Amino acid sequence: MPATSALRRTLAVIAALPLLTLAACGYGSQAKDDDTAKIAAGAEKIDGLDSVRIGYFGNITHATPLVANQKGFFQKALGATEAKYAVFNAGPSEIEALNSGSVDIGWIGPSPAVNGYAKSGGKNLRIIGGSASGGVKLVVNPDRIKSLKDVKGKRIATPQLGNTQDVAFLNWIAEQGWKVDAQSGKGDVTVVRSDNKVTPDAYRSGSLDGAWVPEPTASKLVAEGGKVLLDESTLWPDEKFVITNIIVSQKFLEEHPKAVEAVLKASVDTNEWITANPDEAKTAANAQLEKDSGKALPADVLDPAWESIRLTDDPLAATLDAQAEHAVKAGLLDQPDLNGIYDLTLLNKVLKAKGKPAVDDAGLGVE
């Protein structure tokens, strides 16, 4: 249903909110460059490009680019075209970098992709592939909350107003028949918008009864004594929902399709390698996290976080459409026109070459 008039006035602000993400990904806002793997002798440039700038978040839900960077998959696919990296802390900064041309291809969550596409009138980006599903949980204080019905009347954190987890929690609350004002977070449940950096400390202090958050924040709360009350994946068909997409600027896609195809091939190759080498891949991802942020995840956080993520080349387009509808129903977003947000042509070309089935855009692909 459409947003109210009052909410319409806030849409410009809401559209700029980060994902999830990661708000799963919300550890600051400044990007930084990283060193690249060595370029093989005799390699040739792709599309005549000196470099391709790849953006991602320093988070386990971005395992594919973490491992591809650490193990050199991107550089191998790009030949003598240098793979450069920018590590982001929030969705809006990555969308801004994509719009400015300082990033060509990026890994990002569904909310920033939807918001960025809608805000530009469908002119700035395309989703060209999938990367990860799952990794979002409702973790609670087991002394205060014994069952799902006990969530009513409690203080539960989400990463940010309007982000992917916030929308999911508001939608779940509505399905219980409870009422919450989306803007203030007040009602039958108090929704506390809390940065993932501080949520574990707030939980430890007792000011929160729980949180609906992505990994690794969920596992950090469990390490503090919290209990997983609900895994969001159980609410979705086949227990799959998009948490990380691959996006590209429309200009770069049009001008450099061979480079885009090379990066997609590297992504598919990386996911295959991770599946075949899970322990080595987990170590590689954590090593890249340490390189990017200066701090690796401890085993009691890394291990359960890694187990909850499902890598996928499929962007799970139908679930992105559903997530957008949840934001509309919550009154946080006007009905967006998502037609054309996907272009899976190059991904399906890569998958076909590997003998894998094509993936679907849920009717939201370019015509």
Structure description:
This protein is of the alpha/beta class and 367 residues long. The chain folds into two domains: 5-134 and 240-353, D-Maltodextrin-Binding Protein, domain 2, CATH 3.40.190; 136-239, D-Maltodextrin-Binding Protein, domain 2. Helix content is 39%, strand content 18%. The protein contains 15 helices and twelve strands. The protein has helices at 5-8, 11-14, 63-71, 73-78, 91-100, 110-119, 164-175, 199-205, 217-223, 250-255, 257-276, 278-293, 299-308, 317-329, 345-353, and strands spanning 32-34, 51-57, 82-88, 105-108, 125-134, 136-140, 155-158, 190-193, 210-214, 227-231, 242-249, 309-311. The strands form two sheets. The chain has a seven-stranded mixed β-sheet with strand order 1-3-2-4-11-5-12, with helices on both faces. A five-stranded mixed β-sheet has the order 8-7-9-6-10, sandwiched between helices. α7 (164-175) links the parallel β7 (155-158) and β8. α11 (257-276) crosses α15 (345-353). The longest helix is centred in the last third of the chain and has 20 residues, at 257-276. The protein is globular. The two termini are 27 Å apart. The model is unreliable at 1-36 (pLDDT under 50).
The CATH H-level homologous superfamily of the largest domain: Periplasmic binding protein-like II
Give helix % range: 25-40%
* Overall CATH class of the largest domain: Alpha Beta
Give the amount of beta strand, in percent. 15-25%
What is the strand arrangement across the widest sheet?
1-3-2-4-11-5-12
CATH architecture label of the largest domain: 3-Layer(aba) Sandwich
Q: Biggest sheet: strands, sense, closure?
A: 7 strands, mixed
Number of domains: 2
Structural class call reads alpha/beta
Instruction: Categorize the overall geometry.
Output: globular
Assembly category:
single chain
Q: What's the alpha carbon Rg, rounded to whole Å?
A: 20 Å
